[in-house]
Specification:
single chain; 156 residues; alpha/beta; five-stranded mixed sheet; 8 strands; globular
């Protein structure tokens, strides 16, 4: 199993694993997951990393139907300015490959913000730590496990 699954298991939270065949040609990992699992894309979330000018990383978890509002994220974490993290930096910090970065079980605990829209759902889907694997769990469990917080960080 992946570190993400092991983290959920160790924490003894209620979760469900969903696997699907990942198509490397898919233009959007998140929308591919929603389609393959026949789920409302508003319940499927992607994990993105942003960095401040000093290189400090932040994890943002937003619905696959939208983008990340970097200004809103910067305001939420009290950073002057943020930019999307370099993919290689994100992979090194999390221990996962892009397209399979999970908010759970990362190598290094980073500040995590989950878009507040997650609160509208009993459960949400996030990457299970590899492409083609999703973990379904309650948004409050995700926030608790990651010591994260909710914020309005979804762009349009």
């Amino acid at each position: 199993m992946t570190p993400a699954v092991n983290a959920a298991k160790k924490a003894k939270v209620a979760y469900q694993l969903h696997q699907y065949h990942h198509d490397p040609a898919s233009p959007s990992y998140g929308l591919e997951a929603a389609d393959a699992l026949q789920q409302d894309p508003a319940r499927v979330f992607k994990t993105l990393l942003a960095a401040d000018d000093g290189g400090k990383l932040y994890v943002a978890v937003v619905p696959v139907t939208g983008s990340l509002d970097l200004k809103a994220l910067a305001k939420a974490v009290k950073a002057k300015r943020l930019a999307m993290a370099d993919p290689k930096m994100a992979e090194k910090a999390t221990g996962y490959v892009v397209g399979g970065i999970s908010p759970l079980g990362q190598k290094k605990r980073l500040p995590l913000l989950l878009d507040e829209s997650a609160q509208a759902h009993a459960t949400i889907f996030v990457s299970g730590g590899r492409r083609g694997l999703e973990i379904e769990l309650a948004p409050d469990e995700l926030v608790s496990l990651t010591q994260g917080q909710y914020a309005a960080i979804r762009g349009r």
